[in-house]
Design brief:
- By secondary structure, this protein is of the alpha+beta class.
- Helix content is about 40%, strand content about 15%.
- The chain contains three helices and six strands.
- A hairpin with a 4-residue loop joins strand 4 and strand 5.
- It is elongated and about 45 Å long.
């Protein structure tokens, strides 16, 4: 199956590019993008969740700001992917909303 609709979405321990049609995770090494962009995507993905204190399962003090910065960089990276892939593909960005989840479920920090 040819994939023409891609989604950039970071998650823990996985590559950040997905088929926006079937939801399968795509291997960055299989994408026809520059090595520099692949490195930027890997670095961005490694920072996913830095706004969460995983040990205590709670939001870090500046968690919302960290997630916002992560999402802004993700938006920029999705535009870079789109530029490198050209008109053959459509690339969308799916921002993280986990900090808001924690905010809705916590009463204190």
């Amino acid at each position: 199956m040819k994939i023409y609709e891609l989604k950039l979405e970071a998650d823990v321990d996985t590559d950040p590019v997905w088929c926006n049609q079937c939801g399968c995770n795509l291997d960055l090494d299989e994408l026809p993008i520059s090595l520099e962009l692949k490195k930027e995507l890997q670095d961005w993905t490694m920072e996913y969740g830095e706004w969460i204190d995983w040990t205590n399962d709670r939001l870090r003090k500046n968690g919302v700001d960290l997630e916002t910065e992560h999402n802004q960089l993700g938006q920029t990276l999705s535009a870079k992917i789109q530029k490198e892939l050209g008109d053959t593909y459509t690339v969308s960005f799916s921002p993280s909303r986990s900090a808001r989840h924690y905010l809705n479920n916590e009463t204190t920090f």
